[in-house]
Amino acid sequence: MSTEPENTTQAYLNGSWKPLSECQVPVNTHALQYGTGCFEGIRGYWDGATINLLFLREHFERLSRNASLLLMGCPAVAEMCEIAIQTVRRNAPRQNIYLRPMVYKRGTGLGPVLLNVPDGFMCYMLALDNYFSSAQGLNVCVSSWTRLSDNSIPTRTKATGGYLNSALAKSEAIANGYDEAIFLNDRGQVCEGSAENIFIVRDGVLTTPDRTADILEGITRRAIFQLAKDQGLAICERAIGRTELYIADEIFLVGTGCQVMHVRSVDRRTIGDGNRGVLTARVQQAYEDAVYARNSAYRSWLTKV
Ligand code: PMP
Predict the structure, then answer these.
(1) What confidence tens digit (pLDDT) does each residue in 177-189 have?
(2) If you average pLDDT over every residue of the chain, what do you get?
(3) Catalytic residue IDs
(4) Quick check: 7 pLDDT over 90?
(5) Domain presence at residue 298
(6) Is the terminal CB of the chain with fewer CB neighbours within 10 Å at N or C?
(7) Which of 63, 143, 156, 197 has most ligand 1 atoms within 8 Å of its beta carbon, as the pocket-test mutant?
(8) What percent of the chain has pLDDT over 70?
(9) Structural domain span for residue 9
(10) 75, 98, 127 — which closes off a domain?
(11) What distance in Å separates the CA atoms of residue 153 and residue 170, rounded to the nearest whole number?
């Protein structure tokens, strides 16, 4: 597995296709100087014969909404879907992949502003299997960094600049020997991981922060709602207190990259017996069956390339 894209990969940048190594932006590009971009991460699963892109349209619909919220322009959703499909076709991968489309401010003038600055659009791919190396569950910590609030850099937008917040939390977690950080928001409530949404299980209910908790409105999170509903599992969106993490029966993180990953411990307190919980296992299995096209009920989630 590699998380570095190959330089020879064909990538799309503002209307043309080139090897990734030739897709470059000037050093004074707004997105680089001011963090003014927003992006997506889309997985493609290799089923032995084709790549199945997961929630292709949903990702570009989110990107389009976020770009407009951030006063950025992007190609139409159908066009972006086609560029993503082309990215796969041109590289013909035979393994699981990850697509990274991005809308960004490509202007080079001085001063952080969004109005009257030209927009750019890019898309590239890399091979990606597991995002976390351990299948034994994650040891996580509550971060000393507070999650960005909706009134500063809205985390629901997947804005490039906002990922400095994630990078600080993740780096601190790793430096202290953990696998991942869990943010609290500025109200002190449980928010999300550096790149994942969080679910806890309490009294048999899958519980997750609601959409006003300064989280990214995750596409995997929504898929988990669907899978849970179809299995008759109870779901609740509500504010979660920090110490609920320590007494939860089960905890798992979800996201395009991490898929469904169970949490082994939080701040060195073991969750359950440390192993993957019963409900986590059910959700994880259902998710895997869906994304690897083993359950026809979820075929509409996938775009075959
Ligand atoms: N929260 C954050 C901060 C993320 O970066 C991600 C990854 N995109 C998620 C949650 C999960 O979102 P999704 O399921 O849409 O990948």
Answers:
(1) 999 999 999 999 9
(2) 96
(3) 158
(4) no
(5) no
(6) N
(7) 197
(8) 98
(9) 5-127
(10) 127
(11) 18
Name residue 124's beta-bridge partners.
Answer: 100
* Structure tokens given for 98: 């990850």
Whether residues 118 and 149 share a domain: the answer is: no
Residue closest to 125 by CA, chosen among 22, 67, 43, 36: 43
By most ligand atoms within 8 Å of CB, the mutation choice from 256, 258, 259, 291 for ligand 1 is 256
Give the chain's domain count. 2
Return the C-alpha torsion angle 121, 131, 165, 104, nearest 10: 0
DSSP 152: T
Query: Are 18 and 107 in a shared domain?
Result: yes
Question: Phi and psi (nearest 5°) for 228?
Answer: -65, -45
- The number of residues making up the chain comes to 305
Residue 280 lies in a domain: yes
Query: Residue 107: what are its φ and ψ, rounded to 5°?
Result: -65, 160
Span from the CA of 261 to the centroid of ligand 1 (angstroms): 13
Residue 300 Cα to ligand 1 midpoint, Å, equals 21
**Are 185 and 120 in the same domain?**
no
Pocket of ligand 1 (CB under 6 A): 41, 166, 192, 195-197, 216, 218-221, 255-256
Contact yes or no for 171/194 (Cβ under 8 A): no
Element (H, E) at 171: helix 163-175
Give the mean model confidence (pLDDT) for residues 192-218: 98
Q: How many alpha carbons lie under 13 Å from residue 25 in its C-beta half-sphere?
A: 19
Strand, coil or helix: what is 230?
helix
Which structure tokens are listed for 130? 């597991």
- Residue 268: count other Cβ atoms within 10 Å of its Cβ: 10
Domain boundary among 127, 161, 177: 127
